[in-house]
Every structure is written in C-alpha cells, then in structure tokens.
Specification:
With about 325 residues, the protein is α/β, with parallel strands linked by helices. The protein has three domains: about 5-130, P-loop containing nucleotide triphosphate hydrolases (Rossmann fold); about 135-195, Helicase, Ruva Protein, domain 3 (Orthogonal Bundle), CATH 1.10.8; about 200-320, Zinc Finger, Delta Prime, domain 3. About 55% of the residues lie in helices and about 10% in strands. It has helices at about 5-10, 25-35, 55-60, 85-95, 135-145, 155-165, 170-175, 175-180, 185-195, 200-210, 215-225, 230-255, 260, 270-280, 285-300, 305-320, and strands spanning about 20-25, 40-50, 70-75, 100-105, 125-130. The protein has a five-stranded parallel beta sheet, sandwiched between helices. It is globular.
Length: about 325
Amino acid sequence: MYKNELDNAIKSGKISNSFVFFGESNFLIDMYTKMLTNIEDSSILAFYHDEYNFNSAKAHLSQASLFGDRNILIIKSEKKVPKKELDILIEFCEKNSDNVFIYAYYGSDHKTYNNKKTFNKSSTMSVRFFNPKDYEAQNIVLQVAREKNVNIDKYSISHLLNIHNGNVALACNEMDKFRVYDREITTKDIENLVFGLAEISIDDLIKKLLNKKDFKEDLTNILEHGEDEIRVITAITSYLTQLYMFNIYIRVNGTPNALEILGYPAPKFVVDEKAAMSLKFKPNIYYKLQELLLNSELKMKSSNVDKNAILLSTLIRIQKLI
C-alpha cells in the first residue's frame, strides 16, 4: 500500500487499527504515526529504538481498557521486530477493535513489508512512504503552516523548500519561527530568517571536526534547524567508513578509484580530498573512532538521556583521539 491509498482509506473511514509503516521518508512515517495515534482518552505505550520489549508490548494490548480508554502501542525502530512477535501483536488488534498498533520501521530493508503476502491473513495496513514529490512537499508544509496559523503562500513555501534542499521536516520546523509574525510571510522574510541547508552542511562540520578546528557554531546551527543528534552521529560514522575504505584501497593499490571504493564515479577534487584525509589516520584510530561513535549512538537511543550533551562530548573526544 502507498500513501495515497492510506489517505483514501482515512477519508472513507475504512481504516484498520494495526499498521506497519516503512520506506524512504522518516518524516511521513512520523507524521502519520502521530496523526493516527492522536486519540483522546487513550493509554499509550511507546517503544523507541532498543527499548522494545515483547512481553510489555503484549501485556499492554491484552489488558482490559480502563474507563473506556483505548490501548495504543507504538514501536519505532531501525531494527526489525521478529515476524512471530509482530503477528501476535497484530492478532490482539484483530480481536479487539479498541486496540491501535503502529510499527514504524526506519530500517532500509523494505522487502519483507513490501510483500502483500506478509500480512494477508490480517487487516493490517502495510504502507510504504516515499520521499514526497515537490507538490506533495509544498502541500504538507502548507498544511502545517495552516495548523500553526502561519500566513504563507505556496510560492514562498517553494522558496523555503529550495533553501532546505527539499527537506520537508526542516521546512515545517521553520513554521514555529514564523508564527510570531502577525502578517504574511514573504520570500524576503525567508531570506532574512532562514539559515538553509545549503549553508549548514554536516560535511563541513565533519571536515572541521577532523581537521581539529572549532566546530561548535556549525553544530549549534545544524541542531537549531532540526537535525537530530543521532543523525549527526550516523553521518560522521558513514563519513569515517568511507575514509577508511579509501585508506585501505590506497594502501593496497597505491591510488584511489572512486568507482571501486564508492560504487559510483566522483569529481576529482572530491576523490583527492577524501584520499588525503583518509591517510591522516592509522587503522587503529579508525577502530577507536568507530567504537566511540557506535557506543555514543547506543547511549542516545536509551530513554531519558541528554542527547545534546552526549553528542558534544563525543565530538570533543573524537578530536582528542585524532
């Protein structure tokens, strides 16, 4: 099932009470999860990342509703919930229409849930969300603007999205900034008030970090404009993985080959830059950096932690290691 089919089901009232959301757009997964679980007088149990516990999830859906409340279970994870456990949780929704269950899968392996046969024995709606097209992105931002009483037209929204390289989540975050203005938001306002992704680059932050330069201003700007601390960590991990691949290839073959290292051709200046950077660190340093980043990501995915503090501490420790 795709987004338009889910939208039609919502409009017609022919909607299930159990859902599996997956795909390329985390923003849409989050948006529809929030929309479909925004139910008054409900008892909500939500698991994030590694918090998921099958026995607790099962107990929540199996317990009798108190005072007529509806039991809502939300699982948000990059890891797959075992199919047998998923089937049991869905079965609780099949037996009790007052239950609501949403499994929001943020991983990249979509084959399982993209197969119509996976949930054909239940009424579960398995929905794949692709990144919204330009007109869809504009409509989503316009909807958020109306909800927050921001007076802005589609032309200005298009300009805003261009500044943020089409990132719908960041464009929507700007509405909180605009809502204080009791007038129409113009493109001039956007130019003056918005610091776009074109100017805020995680790659630039990483380069400053690895060159042992002051990165704090860049980090503050990135976080203030909606980037998540975990995504900053994963971006650094991915960047270092590429550098390590360059390092190994150059030590074995003498010169870098982007097509063989990355799987696609890259501009010469990009290859030269990454090759030079990759050779600055020895293999044992790469190991220590990856270990630090993975441990920090794990800590961030625990409940009730200060992700900002963990991120800043991690970046300072990276500069000490190199």
